[in-house]
Design goal:
By secondary structure, this protein is an alpha+beta fold. Helix content is about 40%, strand content about 30%. A four-stranded antiparallel β-sheet has the order 2-3-1-4. This is Stress-response A/B barrel domain-containing protein.
Length: about 100
Amino acid sequence: MAIRMRIIQRFDVTKERQFLQLEKLFAHLEDSRPDYPNGKRLLPISGSEPCNSIIWECDFPDIETAYKTLDFFSGDAEHEMLFKKQSPFFEQVKIEFYKVFE
């Protein structure tokens, strides 16, 4: 069963420029390394999340692979370096999982 994982990060609106600059570095990291899942990034315009949020989502073949990806992120030195720079801007982080309806 396919699973969509969404990581929702609400950030300090006064630090939006710095936060999104770091997010571009995460996107570049994904694009440059074949071992990274290539997710989509969304910025809310209207919806349940405030505009000072970014949503990263990616589909996986099953829930186990999605969880392994979270472990992969936290164990990767390049990801951790960027995360340490970006995390002071976080107000809230949520991780959601959805069954892909086919």
